[in-house]
Design brief:
Blueprint: H1 3-19, E1 32-33, E2 68-69, H2 76-84, E3 88-92, H3 100-112, E4 124-128, E5 138-142, E6 145-149, H4 154-164
Parallel strand pairs: 2-4, 3-4
Antiparallel strand pairs: 1-6, 3-5, 5-6
């Protein structure tokens, strides 16, 4: 290929890159604000298309999930309601089967989370979630905020929990 042809190919590649939006980069361990998508109740079973991944607000089902660890994925429409009530939701994506160590760490996190002073129990839901941002294994989510991690970090997760406990827009158990 002659010099003129190489320059043309390079120019096309640059123009193409300039027109292609960059994928959102995830800063692991950094708390990120997420645009508020509202808090409307929708009928049970309705599928909601959220703008944010994972969602940190938005339309949701009328009944929140009970606090605790779940082996099977809860739909976002269920746990977004928990966020509205000031819970933290911890999402994990093992890209298949999780190893027993991570599962045990996540289950223990439920016991380690301090109780809400207002309501007397830990306001935490932990559930599998397929499709976390690239490279993330865990994402802690509260109302309008999220923090993704490459791997389990109980100190970071519990710190996030402490800052956002009972901070949802609806003061409810």
């Amino acid at each position: 290929m002659n010099l003129r042809a190489r320059n043309f190919v390079a120019a096309v590649a640059l123009a193409s890159a300039a027109c292609t939006p960059n994928p959102a980069t995830v800063q692991f361990g950094v708390e990120t604000s997420v645009a508020d998508e509202g808090r409307t109740h929708v009928p049970e079973g309705t599928t909601v298309q959220y703008e944010a991944n994972p969602p940190a607000s938005g339309p949701h089902w009328p009944t929140p999930a009970a606090p605790g660890f779940y082996d099977n994925a809860l739909p976002p429409e269920r746990w977004v309601h928990n966020l509205e009530h000031g819970y933290m939701v911890v999402l994990f994506d093992c890209g298949g089967a999780c190893d027993s160590v991570l599962t045990a760490q996540l289950q223990a996190l439920v016991q380690q989370a301090p109780s809400s002073e207002k309501y007397g129990y830990a306001k935490i839901v932990i559930t599998p979630y397929s499709g976390l941002p690239s490279g993330a294994q865990i994402c802690a989510v509260a109302w309008d905020v999220q923090m993704c991690l490459e791997r389990f970090d109980s100190v970071a997760i519990l710190d996030f929990y402490g800052r956002h406990l009972d901070q949802g827009p609806e003061d409810a158990p």
